Predict the 3D structure of the following.
Amino acid sequence: MARQGLDPLDGRMLRLLRERPREGLLEVARRLGVARGTLQARLDRLTASGVVTGYGPDVDVAALGHVVQAFTTFEVDQPAREAIAARLRAVPQIIEAHIVTGPGDIWCRIAGTSNQHVQQVIDHVLAVPGVRRSTTVIALSAVVPHRVQPLVDEVAGLPPGPDVRE
């Protein structure tokens, strides 16, 4: 279960870890003016509570050759939703998927090498039993890339810091 709040030290720790992901915990603790054990205990607690979810490098899908990003909503038969979700997880180009309210049922972010490649991914999903139709928009540019640090800063009661990409 996720923690309901962060204190300012938690927020500063998370900000620094995002700004300097390759820096060792001893150096991060020194910069924050706390003992390494204190920092490790806080990081362990945030990880165990589900606030911190990963430590891997951020990857730019465009640098991998997937320069087209599309947002597609699929309308699906409700009883088939779980089976469809399992099939979506098997498609590498679907980099995010959510069950949503509104005119569609499942919203997906798709990364493709071209518009035609995105169309192939959509056609593949449309062939899944229970998927009825899709609506797609192509992203032209990101004005606010995926990020969480401004929210972390607000929850922790910190002044806004640098806008670090998630």
The CA atoms of residues 92 and 148 lie 24 Å apart. The longest strand covers residues 68-76.
